[in-house]
């Protein structure tokens, strides 16, 4: 009889300790969602002209139509919009990322650290 009570107490203690440890564990936060462009990608066709590989130099005048489109967007969203616009027209991803960063800097938007076109 005493061994049954002792066994019940041991199980109760074990479950209590497990419950305490489970309460103090921290769940991993879900990864952030990829930014989604709130505007239609056809509006960003002027950005694809700026990002054309035949352009040697991107300057303020050539990027102005694109800058007016990304004004008011945060850096991640602006990058996503430009990447969506050029995804079909250009296939060299390294060049896309470099050019997107150049365009964002000319628009006075600091590109997100480590941003890559999806």
From TrEMBL:
Enumerate the spans annotated as Bifunctional inhibitor/plant lipid transfer protein/seed storage helical domain: 37-117
Which family is it part of? Belongs to the plant LTP family. PEARLI1 subfamily.
**Which keywords fit this entry according to its UniProt record?**
Signal
Q: Which residues form the signal peptide?
A: 1-27
| Taxonomic classification | Eukaryota, Viridiplantae, Streptophyta, Embryophyta, Tracheophyta
Tell me the Gene3D superfamilies matching this sequence. Answer: Plant lipid-transfer and hydrophobic proteins
Q: What is this protein called?
A: Bifunctional inhibitor/plant lipid transfer protein/seed storage helical domain superfamily
Origin, by domain of life? Eukaryota
Q: Which residues cross the membrane?
A: none
Q: Name one Pfam family in it.
A: Hydrophob_seed
Q: Which organism is it from?
A: Arabidopsis thaliana x Arabidopsis arenosa
């Amino acid at each position: 009889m005493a061994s049954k009570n002792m066994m019940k107490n041991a199980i109760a203690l074990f479950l209590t300790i497990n419950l305490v440890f489970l309460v103090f564990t921290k769940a991993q936060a879900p990864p952030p969602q990829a930014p989604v462009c709130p505007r239609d990608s056809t509006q960003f066709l002027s950005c694809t002209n700026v990002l054309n590989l035949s352009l040697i130099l991107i300057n303020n005048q050539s990027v102005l139509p694109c800058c007016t489109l990304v004004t008011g967007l945060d850096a991640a969203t602006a990058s996503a919009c430009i990447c969506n616009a050029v995804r079909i027209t250009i296939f060299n991803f390294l060049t896309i990322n470099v050019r997107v960063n150049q365009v964002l800097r000319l628009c006075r938007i600091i590109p997100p650290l480590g941003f890559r076109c999806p």
